[in-house]
Each structure stands twice: as structure tokens, then as C-alpha cells.
Amino acid sequence: VHQSKLDFFCKLGYGKQDICKVLENLGQEALEDDVLKELIRMGSKPQALESQAQPSPLKLVARGSCSTSPGSKWLGEDDSDSTGHLRPIVIDGSNVAMSHGNKEVFSCWGIQLAVDWFRERGHTYIKVFVPLWRKEPPRQDSPIADQHILEELEKQSILVYTPSRKVKGKRVVCYDDRYIVKVAYEKDGVIVSNDHYRDLQNENPEWKWFIEQRLLMYSFVSNRFMPPDDPLGRHGPTLNNFLSKKPVLPEPKWQPCPYGKKCTYGNKCKFYHPERPHQAQLSVADELRAKIKVPLSLGKEKKCNRSP
């Protein structure tokens, strides 16, 4: 009887010590209602309520990223990338599909190739934006290839359709580029597109800086998605650092001095000298003066120590 009551109240979330104390006071044959009243009177709370009562610690949110409160979650996002080191990815679906189809066919297979490339790198937050009218049957003026891929990506909560509707037989399409830039800016992520979004750059100065610094261009080489190794130019960050929240700085590579120990440049020499462990900042003349002063100072000390 004691074990059954102990198991029953443990399932409710109460601690074993509190339950044993109450059973000792009321007896082993006490009713469950009486035991529950006594636990409440003692102030004992289930573990679930205690965890809810504890206030959650405040978290700092980086500039340009969304808050982690439940009310701010949308588009089926998760917090898996918020604790990771990889940036969220926002793909311009129309740009990628038309680029893979040589600007003639909306190739959904190109979107799948881009998504798979980022998945293999470990990115968990990937969103693809495509206009809603691409869901309709293809027409001669807008052919679509592998349209079933859009349905599969939508089921995986990766593809997001931007709204569109028909008014008196005319299609009214919302500007999907605005969705792409806005979500990427709020998530502090990366935009995958070959479009420069010049109209949106002129519209918002913060978006202008973000597009210039976070736009990842690409190419398709024999059905292979290939972004550049230097997204911001030869003197910019590498692709790994560009897609990472915490870039890793390369170790400095020092070129040895061609003159070796015969170098007379001193601290002005820009090359590496292995004989100088800490790359002395003194010039050659200063080093010679320092060597001469040492024996002179020792000689003066000896003279001062001699008795008159």
C-alpha cells in the first residue's frame, strides 16, 4: 500500500521525502484525498509547477535578429540555428529556379540542389520563397519543370509561398523580394540570389548595408550548385567565415627575411626573423647601444664598490 501511494503521488510530481513525511503523520491507511490536502498544506508543489514558477533568465538578442519569445515565431521556424554557429539561409526561389533553367524554364530541381548543398554543410534554418502562382499548372509562356519538388519542400516547412490572387481576371502578385530581404535581415542570415535588389537598397539604408554584406551569389555548373569561395571579393572573408556566425581568423603567415642575420632594417623590416623570438622592435643602432651600455654600467658599479 505504501509503495502504491508513493508511486501515485510521484507521478503527480511530488517529492518522495514530502510524501513519506505525510504518510508517517497520517498513517499508511490514509485516504489519497487526505494525503493530497496535507501535501498542499505543507506547501509542497509538483516539480512541473516549480519549474514554471522559476523565472527564465533574460537573453540578449543580437542586432538584426528576431527575439526568441514564442509569440515571435513564424514561418515554421525553430531555434536550432540560434544556438549553432551557422547563419540562417534565405533562398530567392524564383532567381535560383530561372538560373538553373537558363532563364527559359522555372526549374524546381535547381532549388532542390541549392537546399541540399546547404543541408550538407549543416544549416538547419533554410527558407525558400516562391510566388503562390507557381503552384498553378504550367503555361506556355511560363513553363515549370519538376513542379512536384515544390510540394515536397512545402511539406518539409522549407518552401514558403508569397501571396497572390486574381482580381477581375488579373493576377495581383505581392513583391516576393521584400519577403526575402526582410526575413534574412530579421534573422541575421544570408540571402542566396544573383539579384542585387537595388530598389530595396534605395528604400531602406539598413537593408542597403545588409544586402551589400550578406548577398551570396552562385553559379550552376553541370547541375552542381557552386557559390564563390570569396563572396565579398579577393580581400574579403572566405565562404566558411561568410556563412558562419563566429568567423575563424586565419593564422598569420610570416615570410622569412631574405637577408637573414645580415638585415640592417631593424624594426622597419616587414619580414620574419627566426633569431628574434619576439620580433624585437629596436633598430640595429639601438641594439648596439644597449649592448655597449651593459658592460659600462657594470664597470661603474665596480668602481663605486671600491673603498677609498
Describe this structure in words.
This protein is α/β, with parallel strands linked by helices. The protein has three domains: 1-42; 89-243, 3-Layer(aba) Sandwich (Rossmann fold), CATH 3.40.50; 251-282, no CATH class. It has twelve helices and eleven strands. A five-stranded parallel sheet has the order 5-3-1-8-9, sandwiched between helices. Strand 10 and strand 11 form a beta hairpin. It is flat and about 95 Å long.
Poorly predicted regions are 61-83
The oligomeric status of these chains comes to single chain
Biggest sheet, open or closed, and with what strands and sense?
Answer: 5 strands, parallel
Look at the helices and sheets and give the structural class: alpha/beta
Classified by CATH, the class of the largest domain is Alpha Beta
Can I get a quick summary?
Its cofactor is Mg(2+). By secondary structure, the chain is an alpha/beta fold.
Topology at a glance:
Elements: H1 2-11, H2 16-26, H3 32-41, H4 47-53, E1 89-92, H5 93-100, E2 106-107, H6 108-121, E3 126-131, E4 144-145, H7 148-155, E5 159-162, E6 164-167, E7 170-173, H8 176-186, E8 190-192, H9 198-203, H10 205-214, E9 215-216, E10 219-220, E11 225-226, H11 239-242, H12 284-305
Parallel strand pairs: 1-3, 1-8, 2-4, 3-5, 8-9
Antiparallel strand pairs: 6-7, 10-11
